[in-house]
Amino acid sequence: MSAPPTGRPETAAAVPLTPRWWFRPVPLARIAVFRVIAYLFVPVDVFLTTAWVKAHADVPTAFYQPLAIGRLLHLPTPTHTVVLVVQWALVVAAVAAATGRAPRLLGWAVFLLYAEWMVIAMSYGKVDHDRIAYLVALAVLPTIGRARWRDRRSSEAAGFATAAVLVTVMLTYFLAAWAKMRFGGWDWATGATLTRAVVRRGTELSLWTLDVAWLLPAAQWVMLVFEFASPLILLVRSDRARVWLVAFLLGFHVMVYAGVGIIFLPHCIAILSVLPWERLRRPRADAAPPAETAVDRAAPAPAAAPYRDGDPPG
């Protein structure tokens, strides 16, 4: 499979979920920026958004009911020492990984430690569904290898990584709708689901909706349709469309947070992988054209092959 022109791989036509779509090359500079965002979110998550996980260090071990993966891998019971070791090892590894050094070694360390942190978090009776896409992002980042902010190459490994995250983001919405129908049935859409949420967790920005009888039930139907239609996001190809998609999804989550104080922050971080971050490093207008541009003008040289693991960094 030949590589699309360097710098615009996202415009190559491909049917969603076909091999060509999964491995459509993506600029390594995009990965370099997103990797920093993803890894620096770890200390934010550990110390702010999931600071309550540390409290499990002081919970009697009898209350620990490990998730299936914890039982399968015989992960250690989260004693006081285990929780603190995982917490600080995770933060140190994530900060180090954000520098871009040893991307495979440090990347795998962050993924494994964060997975254990989530097992510790979710093995006491509550399992959140807003972290799967972020966990997948941490799992695929180490498979790409080195990537620099000014790297102008494209990589099929990077394409697979971003495709995997996008599919997981989509499935988070779609399976949420499926769960609503599985456990709540049509009563979820026709009942007082959002009304109850606003009564329990409403803010000054949402309490007024309780006085509009039709609004919250209508919002339930809109939410359900949006989640069931989420596979359509796989059809988005152009950079501009992806920016609008990210703005829409983040706007939806900001609206939910403003209304009932619930924010899927790790999921929002995963959504950022869709953005064309490589455009932050545009060449200056007065800069001399790169050598390969002059060569391309002189003769139609073959397109540069997508970067694969093991190639020397450019």
Write a structural description:
By secondary structure, this protein is mainly α. The chain has a domain of 219 residues. Helix content is 55%, strand content 1%. It is built from 13 helices and 2 strands. The protein has a two-stranded antiparallel sheet with strand order 1-2. Helix 2 packs antiparallel against helix 4, helix 2 runs antiparallel to helix 12 and helix 6 packs antiparallel against helix 7. The longest helix has 29 residues. It is globular and about 55 Å long.
Write the layout of secondary structure elements.
Elements lengths: L18 H4 L3 E2 H22 L18 H6 L6 H18 L5 H20 L9 H9 L13 E2 H29 L2 H4 L2 H9 L13 H14 L10 H22 L4 H7 L19 H8 L16
Antiparallel strand pairs: 1-2
Helix pairs in contact: 2-4, 2-12, 4-5, 6-7, 6-12, 7-10
Give descriptors for this structure.
314 residues; mainly alpha; disordered C terminus; globular; 55% helix
State the total count of DSSP E strands.
Answer: 2
Largest pleated sheet: 2 strands, antiparallel
**Helix-strand string:** HEHHHHHEHHHHHHH
| Spatial strand sequence of the major β-sheet | 1-2
Mean pLDDT: 86
How would you summarize what this structure contains?
The protein contains 13 helices and 2 strands, in the order H-E-H-H-H-H-H-E-H-H-H-H-H-H-H. With 314 residues, it is mainly α.
